[in-house]
Chemotaxis protein CheA (Buttiauxella brennerae ATCC 51605), 714 residues
Amino acid sequence: MAIDLKKFVLRFIDEANGHLHTVKEGAFLLSSGQNTDAQIGEMFRAAHTLKGGARMLKLQSIADVTHQLEEILSELRDKKLEPNQNLGTLVLQACDYISNQLAQLSASEGNNQLPPADVTLCEQLARASRGEMDTAADEVVSAPVEKPATLPSLEVLDGGLKQAGSVRVKLEKLDDLINILGEVVASHDRLEQQVQSLVNLGPRISHMDVEQLRKQVLQFSRKLKEDFQVQHLQMYELYDVATTIRMLPVSMLFEPVSMQVRELAASLNKQVDCRILGGEVEIDRQLIDRLSEPLNHLLRNAVDHGLCEPSERIAAGKSARGTITLTTQQDGRGILLRVEDDGRGLDYPAIRAKAVARGLVEADVVDQLSELECNELIFHPGFSTSKIVTELSGRGVGLDIVRKTIVTDLQGTLQVHSRPGQGTTFIIRLPISLAMMRILQFELHNHLFGLAAQYVVEVVKYSRGEVRDIAGRPAIILHNEFIPVISAAELLRIDDRSVGQNSSASHANDLLLIIIQNQFGKMAMLVDNLLDERSMMIKPLPKHMQQQLLVSGMVLSQDNQLVSILQVPVLMEMAQKQGQPRTAAPKQQVRQNSWHVLIVDDSLNTREIEKNVLEAHGYQVTLAEDGFSGLQKARLTQFDAVLTDVEMPVMDGFSLTKALRAEDNYQHIPIIIVTSRAKEEDRRRGIQVGADAYIAKGDFEQDSLIETLKMLLC
């Protein structure tokens, strides 16, 4: 069954105008000499995405002009061209041409009847990208395209074209909305009757005794309370029904995917099937509109980098046809999207080599990068392992857009899991709606703040004595892992000098900690008081404040105070930058980097804290996230000592210790177990499998660890 592209062309017009607005803004800055590298990068990404969408929908004239425009922006980004007024004028000329093409598409309601691209304009853009601007500048001519008289499906706001002003709604959804509205109106009438009853009661009060008055007041308050509760429930029901009108099946996003994947694969001589699971799940239309671009980049990445040629797949024991699976699930926490391929997996050696080549990582430590750290490198702007620049890849654009859109713009999380030789999975978690979210509100020195609940793991109380100084930073031990403690007041630079001595939790012995988490780990954030957690309407920031990354929006508290919603990923990044040890640990009298230690723990926080402790004392450290990974690394590299946890997936610490003792070169290497399991039988088992020392995390002291390690190594 052929896919009707018409509805996707109309949606493309909305998205394309947004990208075109980004390029135009940058072009004006190019002309005035006020451009920045970041601005050029934004222009390039916008043009790249616009070109990809146009090609997918067979809008060849737009794709051809945008391709030449992208070449100019690529040269500007790589400092091979110098920005000037003529170049800015030419870029604006190209934008005007594309804008006119989009207007024609809109006027024809999505029917693709565009003429071929203007040859003269394409040639001028091509010459400019080769540095021939001096001769091309005087020849810039307009591409005359008749503008339609009206644009019925678009709305002009703030100088740019926004989303379509109309949507299709199922009749049953409208019926539900009208029925609820009828109930709300009836409830409102009852409340008006209550007000009128109160007015009528006034003249009779002077003729009543106390008992009669008391009965009248009690009767009135009881009925008013009942009517108010009914209306309260009806208002929430009205909101729920109204929001479903904006909900669309995710198949609206996935329907064109099979065609896109097939065409991309054919251009690379690959065979690909695309499976779609959970397409009936409904999500906010805003999410569908915003997810189109990152999904496009993930699919291009999967086809170009993930899936290999049929001959390579057959040699690996796989079928000649690769598979990309798009899965959507809904649970209490939101929407879960998975983009999964059965390809070769991430090429970690190539990622490490590229990181060194780009100066992101020093060559002498690149081999110590964990797979998680390598996964994060692929989201770095301009990062690509492609050996050649093509239409599909090699420009280093795409995954950085995915990260920004998912995490920063949509308040979601993004994780990557890769299995060498088996494939790669991108896991995206999003709120069900951008308009209404569950918010945990807290107080800090008489200021109100909120956090999106999906980032909150739990809330705990610890005494000051339970907070330890580890690697120069305060930390607690919770559920078998070290979690750094950060002061929200310090981080947000809130001065508490005006706050009373007994009003802040910072002066109390008990500390109230909110455990927050993203894909990089956990942190315990110190706050004064918790207020509540409930679903709240998110109000966007004013336009002049939208560059403020720390605050994603505002909500109104019950007493009508504005509450800032903090971006947890940005908050954690600030804490990590601020979290350098306050005082450097004293260096031990050992040769710098003379001992190489393997740390094995499934907790990212614990691995990083133990790593900081050891590196501060001159040790070289390699990390592993479970016993099996630790064993593999130990077989590839000879370590001088091993620190391991007990409770880990795949292979626990006892099994790892036993397996290492079976290796000839690890029979006499110090192995220290660091765990929260403090029972005597656990200690005895640790000794039985061959551990040289057993340290309970509850008794953890960094000086004790260093002394133990030094004693065993000497």
